[in-house]
Amino acid sequence: MEFVPTETFMCLASCLMPSLTRGHSRARRNRRFQSFFGTSVENCADLWYLCHNALHPDAWPMHLLWTLMFLKRYNTEEVNASLAGVHEDTFRDWVWHVLNVIDSINYVSARVFLTSVINFFLDKFR
Q1: What is the rounded CA–CA span in Å between residue 82 and residue 93?
Q2: CB atoms within 10 A of CB 65
Q3: Cα–Cα distance for residue pair 32/16, rounded to 1 Å
């Protein structure tokens, strides 16, 4: 599985919302990320980790951000594609592919499992 750091998602998000990285505190950047995409940057990285293997080999983390933006913002397809800087067909194809993969995993159960595994190792090595 491919791990993508939260900083990468924050950097990619700044392409969709340039005001994200303009000299603000980390807490403010995190709040802006969550208000734009509907989830925290940490949850976004976790979701990528959980569904990456089921995605098309050409899928990029940006496609997950497009999907989260689509779910949160309720814009028309033309507006979303314009924000993403791609053709409407490209935007639609990737968003629906990622949505189908997310739908196929049980994110809540997987996140609980992942958190319990991480906590186990943290407790073991403290």
Answers
A1: 15
A2: 23
A3: 12
Which residue shows structure tokens 């899928």? 59
Domain borders along the chain are 6-124
Compute the distance between CA of residue 44 and CA of residue 99 in angstroms, rounded to an integer.
Answer: 13
Residue pair 6/42 in contact (Cβ under 8 Å)? The answer is yes
- What tokens does 81 get? 């594609």
The tokens describing 71, both together, are 């779910």
Residues 6 or more apart from 39 whose CB is under 8 A from it?
47, 68
More confident: 108 or 38: 38
Cα–Cα distance measured from residue 115 to residue 19, given in angstroms and rounded to the nearest whole number: 32
pTM over 0.85: no
For residue 88, how many other CB atoms are within 10 A of its CB?
Answer: 15
Number of H helices, E strands in the chain: 7, 0
